[in-house]
Amino acid sequence: MRAALLAILIPIAIVVGIVALALAFGGPGEPPPLSSINDPFKGVDYSDLPAVSRFTARDQTALAYRAYSPVGATTKGSVVLVHGSSANGATMHRMAKAFAAAGYAAYALDIRGHR
Length: 115
What we know:
This protein is α+β, with helices and mostly antiparallel strands. 28% of the residues lie in helices and 20% in strands.
C-alpha cells in the first residue's frame, strides 16, 4: 500500500516541481509575432495592374477577373490563375505578367466573395 502511494505521489511531486521552476524563472517567453500570409506581396509593383473585368455567371453573379494579353504575335495558349484563400486575383499579378511575357494569355480570377 505504501509503495503504491509513493508511486502516485512521486510523479505528482515531480510535475509540481517542474511547474514551480517554470513559474519561478518566468515560464516560456512570449512567442514571436507570426508573419502575415500577405507579406510576400508587400514589395510587388501594382502600378501596371490591369483593370478588373466582369463575367456574368449562370446564376447572374458578376465574377471579377484581370486579363493579361500575351506579348508577341503568337499566343501559345491560355492560363487561368487562381489565388489562395486569403487573397484576390491581384496577388497573381507577377505570375500573370510572366506568363504574358512568355506568350500566354493569362487570366487572374477573383473567387466568389473575394472582390
